[in-house]
Design goal:
The chain has 11 helices and 15 strands. By secondary structure, the chain is of the alpha/beta class. It folds into 2 domains: 371 residues, Alkaline Phosphatase, subunit A; 65 residues, Arylsulfatase, C-terminal domain (2-Layer Sandwich). Helix 6 runs parallel beside helix 7. The relative contact order is 0.17.
């Protein structure tokens, strides 16, 4: 029996047993997403300059996966990877504006058919609308229009173009208000919630009371700060890169980072409100909480501000998982994981059959130590408007980056050079590993890009 048939058999079983008074005690799921989140902008990462006590507590109670990656570090593509559990070349969303393939199921639909109430609030920026992609209820959404954290054009759940209204508060507060209201309500079946924040997407602007919490002159520069990137395939006219003047100065990077950190401290406070609501309603002991960033943000590393890069700062995500009952093998897990792993993780804890189309691997086996990690990850970025094409393969120790337009290659020994400052491509000290990864990347490209 294939996975689709097994999935529908399970769904029919659920509907029948529920109608006969079967108590559905399956766990709830709360997935919280941040946007453009530098992996070091978190206290649990060891960053002493930023204050994120609620996320740090979540990490201390669950598992902090400190080496998680987005398969494609651009807005719509990165989100499609999360919702489908597939790489961009499989789900069809290789860049903004593309649609998810019809044969790629999304986890909200899978969970809804399985009997979950599925909730969405926040930044959608994906194919269709939340209510056309399996969400059955929700709060206010940003689904296009003016982007400003104070004046987002928000659409009520199942609303249309004419129903848009300007947000009456800072975006993070608005989305949290809606989520807390939902959590404080009554629930006759398990829920699967997604709360997707807009921070730390530019424009960098903190809410009232937070803007002066970080003094720019006290913000440490990234360890790999540079005024300009050390490669040719870079476009300083991409919107992300216009936020700070180019070339970068130390002062401008510090000023932007001070505002950026303040946005995340406020987000952390709002996450604290949701966690408190779960506890108040005694839902925390039966709720899987996942916090993930959709993608990274460079913030001055290698002279880059945005995320469209294969350096760690652009392609690396933040990921924390707190299971309500599962035993923890290690609080900080350095396995190579991906945002495509979120979909199967949600399915496994809910007892839902994982569709065969899903390419990710459930994180629960790493959570309790019963499964070994993957050996390598592949990532890609292609901007058809600017002739920017980049590919990457990463193992525990090494990373190979290919800039296909200019022909540039970068090879890093991450064990000796974690901030990717010394390009070893063509150098004798990494020759064997470089050759192996070149072949691996070639084989992956032949398979992935031919889909």
């Amino acid at each position: 029996m294939n996975s689709i048939k097994r999935f529908f058999v399970f769904s029919i079983f659920f509907v029948i047993t529920a109608s006969e008074g079967f108590a559905d005690s399956r766990p709830n799921i709360l997935l919280i997403l941040s946007d453009d989140h530098n992996y070091r902008a978190l206290g649990a990462s060891g960053n002493k300059a930023i204050r994120t006590p609620n996320l740090d507590r979540l990490a201390s109670e669950g598992v902090y996966f400190n080496r998680c990656f987005s398969p494609n570090p651009i807005c719509m593509a990165a989100r499609a990877c999360i919702y489908t559990g597939q790489d961009s070349w499989t789900n069809g969303v290789t860049f903004n504006g593309k649609k998810i393939k019809r044969e790629s199921p999304v986890f909200p639909s899978v969970m809804a058919v399985s009997g979950y109430e599925t909730y969405f609030a926040g930044k959608w920026h994906s194919d269709g609308k939340p209510w056309t992609r399996g969400f059955t209820t929700g709060g206010r959404c940003w689904a296009g229009g003016k982007f400003d954290h104070f004046e987002l054009a928000l659409t009520p759940f199942r609303g249309g173009q004419d129903d848009r209204e300007t947000a009456d508060d800072y975006s993070t507060t608005v989305f949290t208000d809606d989520a807390v209201k939902y959590l404080e309500g009554e629930h006759d079946r398990p829920f699967c919630m997604v709360v997707a924040y807009t921070v730390g997407h530019d424009v960098f602007m903190a809410p009232p009371g937070y803007g002066r919490k970080y003094a720019a002159n006290e913000i440490p520069l990234p360890p790999n700060y540079m005024p300009k990137p050390p490669f040719k395939q870079f476009n300083a006219k991409i919107r992300d890169e216009t936020v700070i003047p180019f070339p970068r100065t130390k002062a401008s990077v510090r000023r932007a980072t001070a505002e950026y950190y303040a946005m995340f401290e406020h987000m952390d406070d709002q996450i604290g409100r949701m966690l408190a609501a779960l506890k108040q309603k005694k839902l925390d002991e039966n709720t899987l909480v996942i916090f993930a960033s959709v993608k990274g943000m460079s913030m001055g590393s290698h002279g880059i501000i945005g995320k469209q890069t294969m350096y760690e700062e652009g392609v690396r995500s933040t990921l924390i998982v707190r299971h309500p009952t599962l035993k923890v093998a290690e609080r900080t897990n350095s396995s190579l994981v991906s945002t495509v792993d979120i979909f199967p993780t949600i399915c496994e804890i809910a007892g839902v059959v994982i569709p065969e189309s899903v390419e990710g691997q459930s994180l629960l086996g790493l959570y309790d130590g019963s499964r070994k990690a993957r050996e390598r990850l592949f990532c890609s970025y292609s901007d058809p408007r600017r002739d920017t094409v980049t590919r990457m393969v990463r193992t525990d120790r090494y990373k190979l980056i290919q800039h296909l337009v200019t022909g540039e290659r970068q090879f890093f020994d991450l064990e000796k050079d974690p901030y990717e400052m010394k390009n070893l491509f063509g150098k004798p000290e990494g020759k064997a590993a470089e050759a192996e990864l070149t072949q691996e990347l070639m084989r992956w490209r032949e398979g992935a890009e031919g889909k």
